[in-house]
UniProtKB/TrEMBL annotation:
Keywords associated with the record: Membrane, Transmembrane, Transmembrane helix
Pfam families: YfhO
Residues annotated as transmembrane: 25-45, 52-71, 86-105, 112-128, 134-151, 163-182, 571-590
Native organism: Staphylococcus chromogenes
Keyword Transmembrane helix applies: yes
The protein's name: YfhO family protein
Amino acid sequence: FFNNERVRFETKIPFFEPFNENTNIIFDNYLIVILIITIQALLTFKLYKHTYYKLFAILSLLTIVSAFIPYVDSIFNGFSAPQKRWHYLLAFATSGLIALYVHYFHTIKVRTYIWTSLFGFILVLISAYMYHKFVIWIVWVPIVFLIGLLSKTHVSSFFYKKGIYCYAISVIILALLVSSVFTKYQIFHQDHEKRANTFYVNASLYNTPVQQDLVQQMNAKKLPEERTDWRVNEQDNTPMYQHFKGLSLYSSIFDQQLIDLYYKNLMINIKEESVSRYQSTGGRANIASLFSVRYAMLKDYQTNLPEFFKPVKASGQYRMYENQQVLPAVRIMDHYYDARYLKTAIDREHAMIDGVVLNRKGEKYKPHASNLLSQVDVQDDAIQHLGRNQIKVQKVGGGYTLSLPQNLQKKFKDFYLVVHIKRGQPDSNHMIDVNGYQNNRLFNASKYRTGQYEQLYRVQPDKEGNIHIGLSPTGNYEFKILGLYGENYQTLENAPKEKIYASYQEGQSKIKVTLKKHKKGMMVLNAPYRKGMKAQVDGHPVTPQRVNYFMIGIPVDAQAKHIEITYRPPWFFTMIILSFIFALLSYLFSKYIYLKINKRKSEAY
């Protein structure tokens, strides 16, 4: 996918996967199980004289072999971590082969049928013996064999006339049995059965009436362009099914600029590491205000609420908070800062609040936030130093404690702690606990790890003025404290909060804004910029720009009133025209082939 950034998979990919219970696709594979009839069909070489049979046999053979080659999985996952996202091709190829095998079944010799069937059945029995596992469809395999054999030997007039139909029905029953076993143990396993019911859908882990009512209240009180920070536990797609403008998503495909924003530019910490999700603001008030987050909702045991969010309502276990320093979704700024000179996440936040961050344009942003690491005392606990940035954690929760002097505690409300951390041996999932905030990180060989080893944590010192970094489990780590930055929120508090627009409408690939009296500058919308966007200012075309790393920027003068932004994917009409042309060519070509074949047939007679 274009513009989809994939994390480079650093773990060595084996050329072949071992043949075991997890990869055996003819018995009880976790992803797909092909019918044993496929093996019989592949070994029936006589039928290869039929063109379509040969085609599906070759496709089946290629896809079966490819199922054991992780590099093929990597190709279908954007040349990243091997992920089996293509096995529908295997299902298609083998299904077509089985259908043709049944179609030509009456032409197969009895001897060929017997030895190919026995070979396939022996493979199934060996698999069951090796894995100490019995599946119900094994019992049906000999019955399918006998029905096929009876139809071949013509022991009765019934089987002579109806044998092929009986065999086809027996194969269909086998397919249903295999599917039911696969569904039971691989799809509706114990964990899924707990959640695949109406009780779970209406429970607090998903979508209760109380949650729906609170979301509706927040939607009614906030402006349509403002956001709500709320997720049901780790349900990142909560905004989609509870219908509000949120801050989280679970998906396999993300726009590159969104990934860069979260991982690199703003370093927003993802509490549960995964390349398939983004979520919230990491408890950072500057980002929440820049994203126009009006409300946040947490359960009573959840923490990491950004500064300036004050409680406005409680209902059961839910707590609703309102942002007292929310910035408008549309702002006009006349200070321009060059992104190249912004080296830390906190400076980028301040620059976006004070003005507009541009790529290779603008002036240097001043002042820069100072690294306070030299002003704090750092002590280790249960740590063995092995070499340059290499440590061994000797007890669960061992790590480092940063003791902050009183002057820093009084000067700043929050601190941004930046660390470099990578799990060593033994490789495993691990957790970084920063004063009670638990960040769960994946093992190095995980297909879902983000590959980001520099993490930023917004933290407040405890009552003793300490920041503790605890690492779990024990073992080796690559670790270094890179920086500590203080935030007093003067930049955010001093930023203008008044709306400079009279109306904001969004829908049908359009954003319409009507401005009030304003100054000349860059109109910034905190909506993602995309290639293919076009803008009109009072009916005159203007080129939108990507500003603030991901937002939409429209240059406007002091007299600008009506702004309309439209979006259409790049090359949209070009692709429609090409699709139409090739569809027409395909039709004409098939017509030509059809007439040519008919002409040959007529000449033959």
